[in-house]
Automatic annotation (TrEMBL):
Residues 1-42 are annotated as: Disordered. This is VCBS repeat-containing protein. It comes from the Bacteria. Residues 1-12 have a biased composition (Pro residues). SUPFAM superfamilies: Integrin alpha N-terminal domain. It comes from Streptomyces anatolicus.
Length: 134
């Protein structure tokens, strides 16, 4: 079974005191940049704190590369942006052949991108709001 993202952004609830709010759309830009309507299998998306802060961000591997929508403390998200023109389908990365993960490999509290593709392992270091490949 392949998960599909709807054309409108998925809703999420946020805590308010001792209860949760009703689900509501928190961002719409991540679906367009990371592949609206495309399968999560083809264009994986993760909810992670990329900068080591309290807010959770949305990281997507879209057709053109890595897209991030930074989380805000109120449960909403900043508009998404293409932060790295790599690890996308346009650069030859595909979920059926290449595993792409997020892990803090430098010990600085920020999640880096680790890709297993072709002949080796590739890394893009997290420089706070951008990623850098070597």
């Amino acid at each position: 079974m392949t998960a599909r993202f709807p054309p409108t952004p998925p809703g999420c609830s946020v805590p308010e005191g001792s209860r949760w709010t009703a689900p509501a759309a928190r961002t719409s830009s991540i679906t367009s940049l990371a592949g609206s309507g495309r399968s999560a299998e083809q264009h994986p998306r993760f909810l992670v704190a990329t900068t080591g802060g309290e807010a959770v961000d949305i990281v997507g591997f879209g057709p053109q590369g890595v897209v991030v929508s930074r989380g805000r403390r109120d449960g909403t998200f900043e508009p998404s942006e293409l932060v790295l023109n790599d690890y996308g389908n346009a650069q030859g990365w595909g979920s059926k052949k290449h595993l792409r993960l997020l892990a803090d490999i430098t010990g600085d509290g920020r999640l880096d991108i680790v890709g297993f593709g072709g002949p080796g392992v590739y890394v893009a270091r997290n420089l706070h709001r951008q990623f850098e490949t070597r």
